Amino acid sequence: MGETSLLSIFITALLIQNVALYYLLGMCPFVALSRSLTTAFGMGAAVIFVVTLTSSANWVIYQILEATGSLIIQYIVFIIVIAACVQLVEMIMERFFPALQASFGIFLPLITVNCTVLFISLKVTTVDNLSYIQTVVYAISAAIGFWLAMVMVAAIYEKLDLIGKVPKGLQGPGIIMIITGIIALAFMGFSGMV
Amino acid sequence: MNLKETFGKKGAKTIKNGIWREHPISSATLGICSALAISNKVENAIAMSAGVIFVLILTAVIISLLRKIIPSRVRIIIYMITIASGVTIVDLVLKAYWPTVSEAMGPYVPLIITNCIIMGRAEAFFVQNPPKLALIDALANGLAYTYTLMAIAIFREIFAFGTLLGVRVTPSGWVDWVVLAAPAGAFFVLGVFLWITRTAAGIEPPKSS
Questions:
Q1: How many domains is chain A partitioned into structurally?
Q2: Does A83 touch chain B if contact means CB atoms closer than 8 Å?
Q3: Which domain holds residue A106?
Q4: Which of A115, A137, B62, B68 could link B114 by a cystine bridge, Cβ 3.0 to 4.6 Å?
């Protein structure tokens, strides 16, 4: 993806290859938190923030690892950077933005094990070899894509909760899977846009 | 059932819980990213399950041996490092011996690190139990993960590609269900799978928050 324009990276990451709907990632928090619109909103926002931070940090670290020929410890280093970033963000928010901390701080520890974060760090380095600007644009748009998918599913689930008669075994994770499947089907229509 | 004689009372209970009662995917909905993403071909599903079982066992042994000396404040980082080391081994082995599978799975191999089954079992079980029980638990959970992945992968490969492990099994007039190979199909199959298993196991639906 050496010469790809920033706009096409944005559209690809947001709509065509949406991390949740195309790569099927980040499903654990997706299922757990899509039951309410407010939590989905908060989690999505936290993901956007952390993903942007960690993938820009990991991009720099990847260049260092590559230059020194120590790519074998890449995964370990990436996951530690992610855990450390999450911890740092939590501490900074607690100290300086207590209001923000109260609104989405509870989701932060969960983000360490959200596969989206690690995936995006790997995608911009090992898989696609993007430049720094492309990395930042990709990270932001992919994270917004995750937020979008999550909020859409949560909104549908909330409405369904009010009117629908979902079979007992299908309630909870089952019906969230079906809703997400329908949205993924709709998103397949975006393929070929770029 | 001779489970009790072979593994002792606690061991038998651990196995039953892992494989059926507290099935990691259908009851706790953990580790479904890989169950969705890797389950379009049986071959990939086998490689994925083997990788997850290997990392689970490694983590179980290391964490339960170290459980008395791990300070609780930094335990998450220790799980992470253990799991990431295991995954690095899996990745290198796959690249060396099954390059085609490694290619097909791409970035999903390193994503075993964030497979919540391993992390969840480490926090809930390995860190509180002796190595023998932890090992049994790791095997039971790995087995539950494997059969789920296999069920979904077999279904998807047969209906989406008309093949099983690359061998054609459907009659000549067969029309592939293309949607099952697409991500959307994965959601539908897993949704129905959850429906069936949760009904059969009598799992109560979560209270809406």
A1: 1
A2: yes
A3: 6-187
A4: A115
